[in-house]
């Protein structure tokens, strides 16, 4: 039972401590002003003067009230005395939670007060105690004791700025400081866009004073305040802030001018595009009402043309020759210095256009981001132009430095479609613009489509996609092309200027996954993906291996055939075998030998279109040493003759005979 009680007590103590820890101290600025007529005495207690009769407390011998004090509730206490009003004002920071309370002052000193209303004079000294009392709980709190010397806390009255006169570079300020004259005053001022104040030195002053502030910027807004002081005491509170604007002046600088020549190859027309930067406020020195533009061929000054415009870009037709161009800005006072350029329209520009451009929306504004290829010509800044598609006459411009590759476009309307162009600028040259359409709901009005594989090899993969004009479902901050492999991951940003990519130095016979991710403010999503495997061998490598092998085999085959033919011709000549010949078998037939008869082939039934040559040689032995000359057999259409030639002359003769089939027989004659 005792354990339960102990646990309950600990829980209660813990909750109480947490409640104390959760008490939040409130801070409030309190101020109370007391005049002479509000002071009253405490009867027999001559050492006290109070603002409420309830504060006549018991005092010690030194006149200090004997009360419990809580100085931690009264912080940063300060008081000042106004001579003109003969009043005492104190200000402090209250740190308790009492919302409804009454505040009173208790004045005390060691000597008796003769007359309480007369203690608020220049030469008085006393001790001050501040009392606060809650209306609901009647809880009283007393501050620490503050010794007060009126002479040291005298504050001059707050001055009043009565009139202000301006020029284009100065302000004449006039102010009053009340009935009691002051001895010195000072003025502080600042420009509208500045955070710091500029103060003048102490100025001799009287009841009404004036001072001229010089060296100011024309057509600029300034804030003015005045403070004054007596011979002794404190400076007065600053006067109420006065806002004033200096008048216009002539523009002090010429516009920054750039150009490029746009040529049409089909029509062979040339256009000169001029764009310039709006003057800064410090250089404009007024409201710029427009620009004066003039251009003329140097060889034909009579063709000079001049016109006025309120835009920051103009396009004029030119020919392939030298021109002189001049631009100036003007306000209600006059014209700025002229910016003049001499250019040759036949020469092409050297500043390349942007490499890529993209736009996305954050719900309240459009953000433009781009990439620029670094070349010999370093871009000094980028000029951004945007206009609604329904109101292209009113364009807005923004300039950023050459090291900046993103910009926020202000003043975008929700239901408007915009055309955004970015010009790279290098001194007096600029490149052609890169443009894109966008709106506040969708961002860039482009969508990625038709993601496909183009080519694959053992060490590379090529992919391709297209861009189409569309209103995407979400505003895409950017697209990223990601290749995931077993050993590596590659990522690159995809812009509308890029429609394909080749991944190099991949591993052969390896599977890869390729994705296109869209990045939004809410997260990422996959737009398209595909899986691909690299080849083990490339087609070119296969050809490089197969062609030499085939050539080697061909050479070896040719060499073998030639070698075999030559060897057989010279070393193994062909010898005719009569057994494979029909005529030979007929001549070698043993049944026809020994009787000296003449055998004749029956050729009368042979009617074949093809012909062949038969050589017949018959050798008759006349003696042992003498060969018989060959017989000459002549076949013709009508007859066959055999002649014996005894003379050893001539070669054998040949006759054309039909091809003999194997079924042909023969007859024996004689």
UniProtKB/TrEMBL annotation:
Does the keyword field hold DNA damage? Answer: no
| Superkingdom of the organism of origin | Eukaryota
Which SMART domains does the annotation name? Answer: FN3
Where do the Fibronectin type-III domain residues begin and end? Answer: 156-249, 447-539
Q: Which InterPro entries match?
A: ECM_Regulatory_Proteins (IPR050991), FN3_dom (IPR003961), FN3_sf (IPR036116), Ig-like_fold (IPR013783)
Q: Which UniProt keywords apply?
A: Membrane, Repeat, Signal, Transmembrane, Transmembrane helix
Which parts pass through the membrane? 542-562
Tell me the first and last residues of the signal peptide: 1-21
Q: List the protein's name.
A: Fibronectin type-III domain-containing protein
């Amino acid at each position: 039972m005792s354990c339960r009680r102990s646990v309950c007590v600990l829980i209660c103590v813990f909750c109480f401590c947490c409640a104390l820890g959760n008490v939040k101290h409130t801070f409030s600025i309190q101020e109370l002003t007391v005049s002479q007529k509000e002071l009253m005495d405490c009867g027999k207690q001559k050492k006290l003067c109070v603002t409420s009769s309830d504060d006549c407390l018991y005092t010690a011998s030194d006149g200090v009230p004997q009360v419990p004090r809580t100085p931690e509730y009264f912080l940063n206490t300060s008081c000042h005395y106004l001579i003109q009003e003969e009043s005492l004002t104190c200000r402090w920071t209250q740190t308790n939670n009492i919302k409804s309370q009454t505040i009173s002052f208790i004045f005390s000193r060691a000597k008796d007060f003769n007359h309480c209303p007369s203690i608020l004079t220049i030469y008085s000294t006393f001790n001050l105690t501040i009392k606060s009392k809650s209306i609901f709980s009647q809880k009283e709190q007393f501050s620490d004791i503050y010794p007060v010397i009126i002479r040291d806390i005298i504050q001059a009255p707050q001055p009043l700025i009565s009139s202000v006169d301006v020029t284009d570079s100065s302000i004449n300020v006039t102010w009053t400081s009340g009935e009691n004259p002051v001895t010195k005053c000072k003025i502080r001022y600042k420009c509208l866009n500045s955070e710091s104040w500029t103060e003048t030195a102490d100025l001799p002053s009287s009841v009404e004073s004036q001072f001229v502030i010089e060296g100011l910027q024309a057509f600029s807004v300034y804030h003015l305040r005045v403070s004054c002081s007596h011979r002794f005491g404190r400076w007065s509170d600053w006067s109420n802030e006065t806002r004033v604007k200096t008048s216009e002046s002539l523009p002090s600088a010429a516009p920054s001018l750039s150009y490029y020549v746009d040529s049409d190859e089909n029509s062979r027309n040339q256009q000169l595009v001029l764009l310039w930067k709006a003057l800064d406020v410090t250089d404009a020195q007024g409201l710029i009402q427009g620009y004066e533009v003039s251009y003329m061929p140097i060889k034909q000054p009579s063709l000079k043309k001049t016109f006025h415009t309120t835009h920051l870009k103009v396009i004029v037709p030119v020919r392939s020759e030298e021109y002189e161009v001049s631009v100036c800005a003007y306000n209600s006072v006059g014209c700025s210095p002229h910016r003049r350029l001499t250019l040759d329209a036949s020469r092409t520009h050297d500043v390349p256009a942007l490499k890529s451009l993209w736009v996305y929306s954050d719900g309240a504004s459009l953000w433009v981001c781009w990439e620029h290829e670094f070349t010999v010509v370093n871009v000094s800044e980028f000029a951004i132009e945007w206009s609604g598609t329904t109101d292209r006459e009113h364009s807005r411009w923004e300039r950023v430095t050459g090291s900046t590759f993103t910009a926020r476009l202000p003043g975008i309307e929700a239901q408007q479609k915009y055309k955004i162009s970015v010009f790279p600028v290098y001194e007096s040259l600029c490149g052609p613009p890169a443009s894109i359409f966008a709106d506040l709901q969708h961002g860039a009005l482009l969508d990625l489509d038709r993601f496909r594989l183009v080519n694959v090899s053992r060490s590379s993969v090529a992919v391709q996609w297209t861009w189409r004009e569309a209103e995407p479902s979400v505003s895409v901050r950017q697209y990223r092309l990601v290749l995931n492999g077993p050993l590596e991951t590659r990522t690159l940003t995809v812009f509308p200027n890029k429609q394909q990519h080749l991944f190099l130095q991949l591993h052969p016979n390896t599977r890869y996954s390729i994705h296109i991710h869209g990045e939004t403010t809410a997260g990422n999503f996959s737009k398209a993906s595909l899986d691909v495997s690299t080849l083990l061998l490339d087609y070119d490598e296969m050809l490089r291996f197969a062609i030499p092998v085939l050539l080697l085999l061909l050479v070896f085959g040719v060499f073998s055939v030639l070698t075999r033919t030559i060897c057989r011709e010279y070393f193994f000549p062909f010898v005719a075998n009569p057994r494979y010949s029909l005529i030979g078998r007929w001549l070698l037939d043993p049944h026809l030998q020994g009787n000296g008869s003449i055998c004749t082939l029956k050729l009368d039934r042979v009617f074949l279109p093809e012909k062949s040559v038969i050589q017949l040689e018959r050798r008759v032995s006349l003696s042992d040493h003498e060969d018989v000359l060959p017989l000459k057999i002549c076949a013709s259409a009508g007859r066959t003759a055999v002649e014996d030639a005894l003379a050893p002359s001539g070669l054998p003769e040949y006759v054309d005979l039909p091809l003999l089939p194997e079924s042909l027989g023969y007859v024996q004659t004689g």
